[in-house]
Amino acid sequence: MIEIFEWNRLLYNDLPESFLLEVIFRSTIMFTVLLLTLKVAGKRGVKQLSVFETVIIIALGSAAGDPMFYEEVGIIPPITVFLVIILLYRLVTWLTGKSKKFEEFIEGKTECIISEGKFSIATFKKESLAQDEFFSELRLKSIEHLGQVKNAFMETSGEISVFYYEDHDVKPGLPILPFLFKLKSKTIPAEGIYSCTFCGNTKSHKQGNALCSVCAKSEWVEAIATLRKT
């Protein structure tokens, strides 16, 4: 029979005080694992929050949750977890202020996704950003084709910031409207201006087949040059 307010059970769950050393070790290991896992997952998985902030939220939430529901979980170990996380938070914050490389590793850095109306292929692959998802983000900003976009950047928060061409500078570009993009084909039906569906490279082509000079892909769709409607 459980004795109510048995302090040793309530505070330590009958574990020795030396177990707190193991709690500190476990907390440090799990904090590091969470940080690295979310770092590998990329910005898109934690949009609006930095990877570091997300780790803090998950770690604190997990530490707070278990002692609320399970009688076998003592109160003191989770409190120790909180103290370790706070200390690690202070340490990481201090290190990001001291080292630019460490800051970039933890928070990431702003990357150029679109340059002069074409995808920055290396960056786009590195960010593991699905093309359909990216097109959706651009359509939400009233963009119809890449020829309207001078530059687009993936911010450290996961947000996409866009800089537009002035109306008189808009050029033909890859259409991102679904009903136009789905008309893509490996065969160019007639002479005209076409965009590579993979990288957005846009140029004049004759009827037939062609490889993109930028990415060596062979799927094309007719480019459009409409102005933005704001």
Order of helices and strands: HHHHHEEHHEEHEEE
Outline the low-pLDDT stretches. none
Summed up, the domain count is: 2
Q: What is the CATH superfamily label of the largest domain? A: bsu07140 like domains
Tell me, briefly, the overall form.
elongated
CATH topology of the largest domain, by name, is: CRO Repressor
CATH class of the largest domain: Alpha Beta
Class by SSE composition: alpha+beta
Radius of gyration: 26 Å
Helix content: 40-55%
Main location: membrane
Family: Belongs to the UPF0702 family.
Subcellular location: Cell membrane
Keywords: Cell membrane, Membrane, Transmembrane, Transmembrane helix
Question: SSE layout and pairings?
Answer:
Blueprint: H1 7-12, H2 19-41, H3 51-69, H4 76-98, H5 100-107, E1 111-115, E2 118-119, H6 121-126, H7 131-139, E3 149-154, E4 160-164, H8 178-181, E5 192-196, E6 202-205, E7 220-222
Antiparallel strand pairs: 1-2, 1-3, 3-4, 5-6, 5-7
GO cellular component, one term: plasma membrane
InterPro entries: DUF421, UPF0702_alpha/beta_dom_sf
Subcellular location: Cell membrane
Describe the fold and architecture:
43% of the residues lie in helices and 13% in strands. It is an alpha+beta fold and 230 residues long. It folds into 2 domains: 7-107, no CATH class; 111-222, CRO Repressor. A 4-stranded antiparallel beta sheet has the order 2-1-3-4. Strands 6-5-7 form a 3-stranded antiparallel beta sheet, with no helix packed on it. It is elongated and about 85 Å long. It starts with 6 loop residues before the first helix and ends in an 8-residue tail after the last strand. The model has no long low-confidence stretch (mean pLDDT 82).
